[in-house]
Amino acid sequence: MSEHKIELSINGRRQRATVEGRMLLSDFLRVDAGYTGVHVGCEHGVCGACTVIVDGLAVRSCLMLAVQADRCKVTTVEGLAADENSLHPIQQAMRDEHALQCGFCTPGVVMTLAALTGGAEKPDAETLLASMSGHVCRCTGYQGIRRAILKLAGESEAKQP
Amino acid sequence: MTLHVDGAVIGRRLPRKEDARLLTGRGTFVDDVVFPGMLHVAFVRSPIARGRIRSLDISTARDLPGVLAVLTATEIDRFNAKLLTFFFTPPAEFPFPLLARDRVAHVGEPIAMVVAQDRYIAEDAASLVTVEYEEETPVVTIAEAMRAPPIHTGADSNVGAVIGVEQDEDLEAAMASAPYLLTRTVRHQRIAQSPMETRGVVASKQGDELLVHISCQSPHLVARYLSHALDQPHLSIRVIAKDVGGGFGFKNHPWREEMSVIVGCMLLGRPLKWIEDRWENLVAACQAREQEMTVRIGLDRDGKLLASHSDYSLNSGAFPQVPDANVAVHMFMWAAYKMPQCGFYSRAWYSNTAGLGAYRGPWGMESLARETLLDVAARELGIDPVEIRRRNLITKADQPCTTPLGIPLEDITPAECLEKLLEKFDVTAFRAEQAAARQEGRYLGLGIAAYIEPTGAAGSMAPMTGEFVQLRIEPTGTVTALMSTHSQGHGTQSTMAQVIADQLGVAYEDVQVFEGDSSRGGFGPGAAGSRQGVIGGGACRRAAALLKEKVVRVAAHIFNVSAESIAIDNGIVHIAGAEKQARSLRQIAEIAYGEPSRLPPGMESGLEAQYRYDPPPVTYTSAAHACVVEVDVDTGFVKIRRWLSCEDCGTIINPAVVEGQIAGGLAQAIGAVLLEETGYDDRGNPLAVTYKDYLLPSIADVPDFEYLHACTPSQSEGGFRGVGEGGAIIGPPTLVNAIADALAPFGEVPLDLPLTPPKLLAVIEGRPLAKPAEKPATQPMPEPIASPAEEVTPHREAGVLVDGSWKMVLATPMGPQPMTGHFETQGGVLKGTLASDQGSQDFEGTVTGNLLKWEMKVTKPMPLTLKYELLIDGDTLFGKAKLGIFGTAKVTGQRASTTTG
Predict the structure, then answer these.
(1) Other Cβ atoms within 10 Å of B192 Cβ, number
(2) Which residue of B lies nearest to A85 if distances are taken between CA atoms?
(3) B347 forms bridges with which residues in the sheet?
């Protein structure tokens, strides 16, 4: 097995590790780094539960190797809110709109929406809704996720001059 | 992240207590549990559907560095652990193995388990296990199972269970004389339940303490199951499931892999973890549905129902968790309708496919079949689909009444739900829009359906008990509830807190609900049969009332006032006319715990109460739904434009949770009607093994749902009714009816799920749908692997040894029921006793030669007269018991001892 030394930032903290070439980023984040908010639902890139933000982009961590994250900036759902006692606006909107039930797909949904709304450009509701085609939620029928998106998009539109 | 709310909290859309941890990735799912020294399991699985294992070579795998052990049936069977059903009964007359022994019976069947330091190495090693098979022709479909010899050694046919009567003379006469007879066959495809979290277990044993973390629907039920299945009385068993990523019936109880891991942990003395991957989940785990039902309905020309018979088959796979013929399908087939007489015949078939498991609304085939056939009848008779339901639904005015299958009804409201729905949905306006659209070549359709469902069942089946809560006001003044309920997304930590807060007079934020640990609270089956709101809610109300009474007595004593002058509001104990003396619950609690001398004489210190609530046997929920679709006649794609739900789930605890349950069920219904299908090729290879092949509904497939709530309080404590399964039951027929209505100008849509674009295009283009090719006639049928039981014939010869004790098994619709029979004869008179874990009962009958006959009345699960006819042959007995409307059940037995004398 090939072994590789990697150094990356996870949720703002630098971390060094030695990983096998075949180690998935999802397994590295969960098992080695302890960020168990990364949920593995299908391991073949369809369900979206394992989505994290790598260098500003939403990425399925089950389709990326840990070694590929060398020198990258990774954010997991644990690192999204400003502090332990607050929620990121996406998380708050999802809570207000009852956008989750079992909560297994939730971290992935949150991370995709956070990646899309994290930059200077504020995507419209249609873009955010389209991005949800990459996430499977088996509990909610997407009702609350859709309401949360409409709320977020509405707020960002209202803020724009 | 505060949750403070003022005033009454029942009926309010409060934020859930669970969400803060789940939104921030701080939940604890089974794969998040880690123990020092924990090892990882991967299974070696059968690549063929049926055959004999010729050889199994684990040596290369065992030698791989990092591998601790490779366990096969030889090791695992040493523990003699048993697989049981949800009812804690044996799943069949022959035992189901944990790991395959000398034969495999479906693709994906576990054969060996590799235990290694990490999952990567475990999977490497699993691929190094060499198995040689003697492959045999598999039995895959229901049609094949009907004509093939039994797939299981020890079974005398592929019928796993049978109930009902194939042809009843009176019923046939009624249908023959009906002015209009409708016959259709309805098919439901096989479904992968697909909770987003797969199965998983972490087992650890310290001395005599077995600790199991498992993704399940009730840690209490799993603990009880393990106690029966392992049968190791010295073991202290504790089961924990904090957060579970969806259940839907799939995680009712452990099965082959989880049991193997638990036994492996006990064999090796090391903590073991197995997390099912999605490929395993789609290939090897229990699946659901795959049913077909041929329904005949006799009606008069005005669409009034006269008689009906349903012939139902389900493919229960090789090792079903639910090996029954699902009596509920027939019980509720016509329960909401004025159907003068109906009958059924129901068979479950073994096949070389993954075993049958439960799935939300497991009996929902009845609503699919009934509601879709009613629409076909309406179309053929020229009656409006709303009108045919109005003419037949049971209304409030018709109740109380009892259905032909013996269900007493007092307060169902499907007819009222339908009327409420129609106040919101203008059918006339829709028909005008539909007609105009057709002029433009656009095809809109309206689907309407109504139903009732049994919820909150308790007291008639072993696992379906009451629910339990231990409630206390802590010395800090906060309220703690330890519960028998369990959430896999249901939000019971929130809804139970709402009930308690309201009843006790404290703030929602001050109530903390703990569940998910078999060592806390008490037994309950968890999320099974839409029960937790009804029964758990009732338990919370009763326990809170007891606790409140104690607070009032304590406060009245301390302040020397009457109990009537005490009120608790928002955590403050008020005394009428003495507001200055108001005290917080904390102040009262500190006295109750710390200064027992200030309590009324003889009163136990502390502020604690517990209650196990047993509700009425069943609480019914009713609903009517309407859905509008547009079918693109060029592509066959269905777009859902509108969906209205009007349900009556009684008193609503939290509308957001209720609507979430309905929406989730409806999304699953949309998946079943349009997208999802897991099936097999003719060699028994699964055809959907990833989520690229198994299509789950995405956000674009599910419309915004509109909700109307009828809110007729039930007879249960608090007036709640269950709502967990309704959407999944009423959704499919509503959507099928809408599609059929849209395409009515082209012809009849086949009642054959899923309704994929190719199937709909076949209707639109007026061509017969290509049928899957039958297996060529030259293909050899599978060879029988068991000789059928010897035929025993009645004879009149005297001297047959009857008297004594017999170990008997009655194959009931709930699974095999072991019994002990004691017989005494005197001339032609037979006296005896039948005893089972349900109790014991005496009977009197006759003996003629080797033929024994008697009748006995039972009251559970419902009043029935059982008619036994048994033949004795040496030390064995065979025969049948007629179970009234449930048909005939097989009886087998062995002599246990003789009575001399």
Answers:
(1) 28
(2) B1
(3) B162, B313
- The Cα–Cα gap between B19 and B657 comes to 12
Q: Which of B31, B243, B698 lies closest to A103 in CB terms?
A: B243
pLDDT of residue B777: 47
Q: How distant is the alpha carbon of residue B368 from its chain centre? A: 17
pLDDT digits (tens, 9 = 90+) for B714-752: 999 999 999 999 999 999 999 999 999 999 999 999 999
Of B235, B158, B197, the closest CA to residue B31 belongs to: B197
* H or E element at residue B501: helix B492-504
Q: What is the mean pLDDT of residues A8-24?
A: 97
d(CA B900, CA B198): 58
- CA B766 – CA B73 distance, rounded (Å): 54
| Domains, in order of start, for chain B | 33-136+195-247+251-283 (3.90.1170.50), 288-456+618-764 (3.30.365.10), 459-613 (3.30.365.10), 804-898 (2.40.128.120)
Query: Which of B5, B22, B117 is the mutation pick for testing A, counting most A CBs within 10 A?
Result: B22
Place of tokens 């079949």: B369
Contact B448, B734 (CB under 8 A): yes
Q: How far is CA B317 from CA A119, B686, B850, in A?
A: 51, 12, 37
Instruction: For residue range B152-203, list pLDDT tens digits in order.
Output: 988 889 999 888 888 888 899 999 999 999 999 999 999 999 999 999 999 9
B113: tokens are 């388990």
Residue positions counted in chain A: 161
Out of B19, B248, B278, closest to residue A43 by CB:
B278
Q: What is the pLDDT of residue B647?
A: 97
DSSP bridge partners of B240: B213, B517
Round to whole Å and give the CA distance between B346 and B366.
12
Whether residue B31 and residue A36 make contact (CB cut-off 8 A), yes or no, is yes
Helix (H), strand (E) counts: chain A: 5, 5
Q: List the domain boundaries for chain A.
A: 3-159
Q: Is B2 on the interface with A (CB under 8 A)?
A: no
The ipTM, to two decimals, is: 0.97
B246 touches chain A (CB under 8 A): yes
Q: Which two tokens stand for residue B338?
A: 């004025």
Q: Letter for the amino acid at B885?
A: I
CATH class for the region spanning A3-159: alpha beta
CA B319/CA B82 separation, integer angstroms: 13
Test A95 with B488 for CB contact under 8 angstroms: no
Residue A110: which of A34, A25, A14, A37 has the closest Cα?
A37
Residue A41 and residue B196: Cβ atoms within 8 Å? yes
Within 8 A by CB and 6+ apart from B340, the residues are: B174, B305, B306, B307, B404
Q: Does A131 touch chain B (CB under 8 A)?
A: no
Omega within 30 of 0 (cis) for the link into B754: yes
Nearest residue on chain A to B487, alpha-carbon basis: A102
Question: What is residue B787's predicted lDDT score, i.e. its pLDDT?
Answer: 39
Radius of gyration of chain A (CA): 16
Residue A157 is predicted with a pLDDT of 67
Tell me the C-alpha distance between B678 and B698, whole Å.
17
Coil, helix or strand at residue B55: strand
Q: Could you give the CA distance from residue A160 to residue B15 in angstroms, rounded to a whole number?
A: 29
CB contact (8 A) between residue B489 and residue A102:
yes
Is residue B128 within 8 Å of residue B60, measured between CB atoms?
A: yes
Residue ranges in chain B whose pLDDT is less than 50? 1, 777-779, 783-790, 901
* Residue B650 Cα distances to B330, B487, B726, angstroms: 25, 21, 13
Residues on chain B touching A31 (C-beta within 8 angstroms) = 118
Note whether B123 contacts A: Cβ–Cβ < 8 A. Answer: no
Determine the Cα–Cα distance for residues B731 and B726; give it in Å rounded to an integer: 8
The first and second tokens of residue B858, run together, are 């039972």
